[in-house]
């Protein structure tokens, strides 16, 4: 009689043994933050600033993995295809998610992701060589208007915030630039420093060290107001481009269908990391102040950018070339 109950008993014991494993608290292994651009750019700096504190908070290693190319599409596609378990995450601006799919065929859309939360907001700047021919924004705008298509302007890749801001600059300033796409801000800055291009539209985060050293000069900020980190640098509004405003929002996303409790755990860890005093100081020092949000607030930001991009696409300005 007892022997006949052994299989049932064994199954019950196996189920009891497996239950704790199934109910284990997230996370149980390292987490990867995929940055879809080259090292040294704005997203990379933000990710690497937050990764160590996220690791402490979550109790697991947090690794930054740069997967550059196609304006962020390579990294975004990789995360969209990943298991929706919270272990492979994307650090991105809205543009790679909602602008790029309007410009070229991508394997993902906005609904391919589960938003986790904002990480930072960053002003955009127009930077030129410190010893180059352009001493101020008026000289840049004058050259671009008098020599249409001859002033070369680097940006971080098709569909990026930098690219869209450059298009907005052309439209608002009634000028034509020779746009040169790169696989992130760092290689664009390298070519600017080497004299291969005339200017770069960039996040202050990745340009700050060069501006502080004098090897680059910020001739204008693209935000509504002057930036506290660059109090002597005028806005494009001051240069005569009425109502101009462009900034970069950076946030964290997981693959679609990631369990809500995992999203909540990641959002809580992100908020805690952004509240860390050392992280706050670091992000402010590099020109990318931290900003937390709920998953829904981050999604609302993404949808707002998606609507704006749709309007821009109708003008024919959004092209992958």
TrEMBL record:
The keyword Signal applies. The lineage of its organism: Bacteria, Pseudomonadati, Pseudomonadota, Betaproteobacteria, Burkholderiales. CDD domains: PBP2_Bug_TTT. This is Putative Bug-like extracytoplasmic solute binding receptor, TTT family. It comes from Variovorax paradoxus B4. Residues 1-23 form the signal peptide. Belongs to the UPF0065 (bug) family. The keyword Signal applies. Keywords: Receptor, Signal.
């Amino acid at each position: 009689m007892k022997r006949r109950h052994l299989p049932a008993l064994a199954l019950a014991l196996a189920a009891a043994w497996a239950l704790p494993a199934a109910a284990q608290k997230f996370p149980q292994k390292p987490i990867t933050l995929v940055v879809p651009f080259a090292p040294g750019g704005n997203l990379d700096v933000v990710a690497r600033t937050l990764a160590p504190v996220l690791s402490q908070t979550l109790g697991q290693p947090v690794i930054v993995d740069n997967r550059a190319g196609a304006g962020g599409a390579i990294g975004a596609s990789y995360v969209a295809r990943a298991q929706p378990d919270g272990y492979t995450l994307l650090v991105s601006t809205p543009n790679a998610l909602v602008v790029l799919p309007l410009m070229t065929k991508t394997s993902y859309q906005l609904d391919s992701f589960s938003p986790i939360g904002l990480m930072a907001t960053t002003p955009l700047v127009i930077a030129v060589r410190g010893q180059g021919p352009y001493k101020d924004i008026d000289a840049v705008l004058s050259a671009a208007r008098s020599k249409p298509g001859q002033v070369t302007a680097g940006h971080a890749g098709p569909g990026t915030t930098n690219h869209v801001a450059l298009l907005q600059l052309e439209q608002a300033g009634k000028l034509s630039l020779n746009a040169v796409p790169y696989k992130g801000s760092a290689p664009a800055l390298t070519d600017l420093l080497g004299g291969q291009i005339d200017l770069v539209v960039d996040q202050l985060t990745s340009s700050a060290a060069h501006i502080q050293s004098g090897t680059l000069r910020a001739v204008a900020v693209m935000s509504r107001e002057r930036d506290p980190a660059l109090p002597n640098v005028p806005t494009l509004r001051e240069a005569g481009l009425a109502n101009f405003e462009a900034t970069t929002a950076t946030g964290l996303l997981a693959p679609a269908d990631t369990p809500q409790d995992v999203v909540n755990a990641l959002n809580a860890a992100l908020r805690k990391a952004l509240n860390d005093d050392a992280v706050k100081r670091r992000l402010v020092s590099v020109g990318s102040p931290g900003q937390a949000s709920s998953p829904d607030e981050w999604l609302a930001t993404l949808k707002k950018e998606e609507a704006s991009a749709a309007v821009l696409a109708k003008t024919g300005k959004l092209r992958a070339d």
